[in-house]
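#struct-help
A.M.: can someone run this one for me? Single chain, 142 residues.
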Amino acid sequence: MNLTIINKTDFENTETIKDFVQFLINKFSVNKKKELNIVFTTDHDIQKLNREFRQKDSPTNVLSFYGYDGSILGDIVISVETLEKEAEKQNENVFEYTLFIVAHGFLHLIGYTHETIEKFNNMIAIQKNLVKEFISNKRVGK
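D.P.: on it. Structure tokens below:
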């Protein structure tokens, strides 16, 4: 996987994010020749993207943009400010919540959607299980 992480914030742990993406690639048998960009950004920047591409004039936690040709999986843009606020509000570990959000963006890029409550609940359950499995594997050194 040709993975590029662009960090426009003070977000740390990009190496673990790379490991997590590799875990996701393997888990879902995604072509390892595909390109993926992950951008960690601010509320201000993601709000501009959200307004332009979704006509929603507010920040959001994650946006996914599908690749425009066969060699590109896509881009995942994450607002560190929003995910930190959400994690705190939900009493979640910020790093684990970051993995949860990365998984959400990744799932969209491989075709998952959540336009119904059933699909939403399924996607959330998958995200939680992916984070749990990744963290469990990291602890035992797999």
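A.M.: thanks! Helices lie at 14-27, 43-54, 80-89, 94-109, 117-139.
D.P.: also worth noting: The CA atoms of residues 44 and 59 lie 7 Å apart.
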